[in-house]
């Protein structure tokens, strides 16, 4: 299984980088993991909806360039479909059984995802109705992917 995490924005704080490194290490025995960091577009001061839309579209174009043909795309969106850890594990396992070996998880920038990226998604996934910093969301996502593989293999992991 090949998993790509395509995310807008760099990790700035050391504690996020350390958490990411830990989950990358844990996931090595379950999948080939690639993290693709894209530059976050700057939003001018006192910008309005038009400028925000332009930033989302620019970031969206960069995201779409990183999505390869045949990838199953999961976008993380507040208004996406909520599911339990067990259901996410079932989804990943079903994709594997169906012969899909490339999954891309997409995390947008501070303004969210462009409409074009949302439309490209095979699954729009919501972790919560709350908004989280994209750095934190990256850690939460990797933890849930790790948890999914533990569930799929029926291995012990804390609840």
Summarize the structure.
The protein is built from 5 helices and 5 strands; from the N terminus they run βαβαβαβαβα. It is an alpha/beta fold. Strand 1, helix 1 (14-27) and strand 2 form a beta-alpha-beta unit.
CATH structural fold name: Alpha/beta knot
Radius of gyration: 16 Å
What composes the largest sheet?
A: 5 strands, parallel
How would you describe the shape?
Answer: globular
- The strand order across the widest sheet is 2-1-4-3-5
Q: Please state the average pLDDT score.
A: 93
* CATH homologous superfamily label: SPOUT methyltransferase, trefoil knot domain
**N-end to C-end Cα span:** 24 Å
Notes on the structure:
It is built from 5 helices and 5 strands, in the order E-H-E-H-E-H-E-H-E-H. With 159 residues, the chain is an alpha/beta fold. The chain has one domain (2-43, 51-152): SPOUT methyltransferase, trefoil knot domain (Alpha/beta knot). Strands 2-1-4-3-5 form a 5-stranded parallel beta sheet. Helix 1 links the parallel strand 1 (2-8) and strand 2. The longest helix has 19 residues, at 134-152. The mean pLDDT is 93. This is Ribosomal RNA large subunit methyltransferase H. Pfam families: SPOUT_MTase (PF02590).
Considering the chains and any ligands shown, give keywords for the structure.
single chain; 159 residues; alpha/beta; Alpha/beta knot; 5-stranded parallel β-sheet; 5 helices; 5 strands; Ribosomal RNA large subunit methyltransferase H
Summarize the SSE layout with pairings.
Layout (H helix, E strand, L loop, with lengths): L1 E7 L5 H14 L4 E7 L10 H18 L5 E11 L2 H13 L4 E6 L7 H6 L2 E4 L7 H19 L7
Subcellular location: Cytoplasm
Catalytic activity: pseudouridine(1915) in 23S rRNA + S-adenosyl-L-methionine = N(3)-methylpseudouridine(1915) in 23S rRNA + S-adenosyl-L-homocysteine + H(+)
Subunit structure: Homodimer.
């Amino acid at each position: 299984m090949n998993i790509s995490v395509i995310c807008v924005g760099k990790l700035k704080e050391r504690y996020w980088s350390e958490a990411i490194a830990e989950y990358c290490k844990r996931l090595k025995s379950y999948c080939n993991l690639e993290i693709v960091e894209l530059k976050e577009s700057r939003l001018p001061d006192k910008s309005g909806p038009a400028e925000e839309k332009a930033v989302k579209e620019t970031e969206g174009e960069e995201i779409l360039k990183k999505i390869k043909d045949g990838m199953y795309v999961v976008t993380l969106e507040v208004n996406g479909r909520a599911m339990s850890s067990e259901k996410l594990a079932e989804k990943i396992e079903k994709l594997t059984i169906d012969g899909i070996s490339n999954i891309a998880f997409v995390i947008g920038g501070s303004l969210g995802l462009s409409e074009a990226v949302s439309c490209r998604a095979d699954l729009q996934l919501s972790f919560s109705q709350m908004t989280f910093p994209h750095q934190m969301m990256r850690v939460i996502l990797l933890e849930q992917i790790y948890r999914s593989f533990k569930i799929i293999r029926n291995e012990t992991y804390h609840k």
